[in-house]
Amino acid sequence: MIVSAEVDCIIYEAQSLKEKRAVLKRIKTRLQNEFNIAVSELDFQNLWQRTRLGLVTIASDKVIAEQTMQQALAFIDSFPEIERTETNQEWL
């Protein structure tokens, strides 16, 4: 089972692309290490307060894949400097 999500976020405190990339690098690295999922910035690379992240996880069971994705989304929500505004999930 493959679960993917596109997550739109706002980074309120970023005042430059450098600050945005520092926040995203920390979040992406921790997501990859803690949940073993693939993460990439999909859109808004040149806007310093907005981003769209793509997350993908693969598991042998739909329940496990869904739990992993929900934990990863909750993990993103735990960062005070980023706000998740819209999330679209797909199951393959």
TrEMBL record:
InterPro entries, sorted: DUF503, TT1725-like_sf
Domain of life, per lineage: Bacteria
Pfam name, any one: DUF503
Regions that span the bilayer: none
PANTHER family with a match to the protein in the record: DUF503 DOMAIN-CONTAINING PROTEIN, HYPOTHETICAL CYTOSOLIC PROTEIN
Protein name: DUF503 domain-containing protein
Lineage of producing organism: Bacteria, Bacillati, Bacillota, Bacilli, Bacillales
